Amino acid sequence: MSGSQSRRSGPPCERKIDQRLTTLIAALYPDERRRPGYAKLAQEIRETTGRAISGTYLWELATGKKSNVTLDHLEALAEFFGVPVEYFVNEGVANKVNAQLALASALGDAQVRNLALRANGLSTASLDALLAMVDEVRRLQDLTRIDGQDHAQEDVASGPDPRGPQR
């Protein structure tokens, strides 16, 4: 491949930063009418992460006008959106995160999606602690108990209880 072709197309990860960034923005702000502009989004990123990024630069990345992104900017974006830095450069990680984003988007509530996005990548112990906190808050607000997936998986694995339903 000639030098001009490689500059034009860039490495595969550079060609997908725009897609991955727009996916994250759409997941965090699914209602296009309420989605902040790039200047406001850059301000939110700066306030959340303490890292400098401009609205123009963010727009250039999201539209594919610029694909040569610095590690510092990737780290800021990853921190803000609650994804691993590898999301932007590793196809396998991106596919896994995108599947999680699709599930989170299906939930329909922006704050629930935001929580799910930020919980991605936490240790099992941390996730268990978060689930315990959510369960306690639900109890304090007199909301119905939601049994965890672990119980449902145990029930499926063991089959129906031969004693019948337990009350």
Q: Would you write up a description of this structure?
A:
By secondary structure, this protein is mainly α. 66% of the residues lie in helices and 0% in strands. It has nine helices and no strands. The protein has helices spanning 3-9, 12-28, 38-49, 55-63, 71-81, 91-107, 110-119, 124-140, 149-158. Helix 3 (38-49) crosses helix 5. The longest helix is centred in the first third of the chain and has 17 residues, at 12-28. The chain is globular, with a radius of gyration of 20 Å. The model is unreliable at 1-10 and 149-167 (pLDDT under 50).
Helix content, binned percent: 55-70%
Please compute the radius of gyration using only Cα atoms. 20 Å
Determine the mean pLDDT.
79
Span between N and C termini? Answer: 69 Å
Give the biggest sheet. none
Task: Kindly name the structural category.
Answer: mainly alpha
Q: How many E-type strands?
A: 0
Order of helices and strands: HHHHHHHHH
3D shape? globular
Q: Which tags fit this structure?
A:
mainly alpha; disordered N terminus; 167 residues; 0% strand; 66% helix
Secondary structure topology:
Layout lengths: L2 H7 L2 H17 L9 H12 L5 H9 L7 H11 L9 H17 L2 H10 L4 H17 L8 H10 L9
Helix pairs in contact: 2-4, 2-6, 3-4, 3-5, 6-7
What's the short version?
The chain is 66% helix and 0% strand.
